[in-house]
Amino acid sequence: MKAQVFHGPGQVSWDEVPDPGIKDAADAIVRVDAVTICGTDLHILKGDVPEVAPGTVLGHEAVGEIVEVGGDVRSVRPGDRVLVSCICACGRCRYCRESRYGQCLGGGGWVLGHLIDGTQADYVRVPFADLSVHPLPAALADEDAVLLADIFPTAYEVGVLNGRVRPGDTVVVVGAGPIGLAVIATAGLFGPGRIIAVDQDPSRLEAARGLGADAVVRASEDPARLVANLTEGHGADVAVEAVGVPETFELCTRVVRPGGHIANIGVHGKPALLHLEDLWIKDVTITTGLVDTVSTPMLLRMATADRLPTGPLVTHRFGLDRMAEAYGVFSGAADNGALKVVLERAIT
Q1: What is the pLDDT of residue 269?
Q2: What's phi and psi for 119, nearest 5 deg?
Q3: What percentage of the chain has pLDDT greater than the value 90?
Q4: How many other C-beta atoms lie within 10 A of the C-beta of residue 27?
Q5: β-strands 194-199, 236-241 pairing
Q6: 16 - beta bridge partners?
Q7: What does the alpha-carbon distance between residue 165 and residue 324 come to, in Å, rounded to a whole number?
């Protein structure tokens, strides 16, 4: 089969590799029909995730069809159309029993495209299939469903829930890329009083408005002042960091009010200063997190009922064999306005 193989920082290629096979009785083999590229994949290419070994197939999000299952799999069978979650869960360890699947100690967590071969391929082996794939209704299109593998549960769990967004809150989302936009969309479910989006890209700020942001500001235009002006000097109730660079995290610490919450989603490859000399007295709560995907079934129901705005996030579509071109477009988002790119088997 063909797959997107990581060969070291800055090196990736669409290679011929062996087909995956069942290794454990809890495994499923999925024929990949749709995938997307995540900002985390770009972090891997930059060398920010050193655990990824050369030779690993990238990708942790997919929609496809079950072609084979191990003897212990009960929830799906060959022929089923499924969503492949970005998180796998053994279901037995301490953290899985606490629904913290992202911290699984039994061989799960974020393993696809990280510690084992991932989804950017013709076929993928998914461990612990009963908890790691989700049957899909026919009404939900592949390109909508694949966004529920990672960005929507990540935005909802690590951003909105960790940030404890409540009705009437002022929510500042720093970074209007795909994750930040999904935060804006899902924060709106809780009736915040105001959502402010911060980014440097005017097209992303326009997308933020379309998904529910009440105010937008470019990062170079003193967003802290705007937040202060809109909150009578108090600051944001919730600040969500959705980029993963020191400057954006530090901006969140400046705009949050005393007693507020900072929810960090971004994947950081460099240290960020934590100004405790300013924060110690402010009663600020800072959360970090890897998504657990416990919200995926609920989000799937909402998307199927057309209650989740997935469509506006997909800006570019490719055939699966155009992986190199798709990576080029996604990594050049500042120049071409790309948000999410979707690659489908059916497109030629």
Answers
A1: 84
A2: -95, -10
A3: 95
A4: 22
A5: unpaired
A6: 2
A7: 38
Cβ-Cβ contacts under 8 Å for 213 (sequence gap 6 or more): 173, 176, 184, 195, 196, 197, 205
d(CA 179, CA 191): 19
User: Sign (positive/negative) of CA torsion 228, 233, 237, 241?
Assistant: positive
Q: Rounded to whole angstroms, what are the CA distances from 299 to 62, 240, 305, 329?
A: 16, 20, 10, 28
How distant, in Å, are the alpha carbons of 39, 88, 241 from that of 254?
A: 25, 36, 12
| Residue 208: both structure tokens together | 């933020």
> In one letter, which amino acid is 217?
V
Alpha-carbon gap, residue 241 to 121, rounded angstroms:
31
Q: Which residues pair with 14 in a beta bridge?
A: 4
- The separation between CA 330 and the C-alpha centre of its own chain, rounded to angstroms, equals 14
| Span 197-244, pLDDT tens digits | 999 999 999 999 999 999 999 999 999 999 999 999 999 999 999 999
Q: What is the spatial distance between Cα 109 and Cα 102, in angstroms, rounded to a whole number?
A: 4
d(CA 42, CA 212): 27
Please state whether the predicted TM-score (pTM) of the whole model is above 0.70. yes
Q: Which residue has the tokens 């530090």?
A: 250
Burial class (CB in 10 A: 0-12, 13-18, 19+), 82: buried
Tokens of 175: 């970074």
Tokens 């934590």 belong to 274
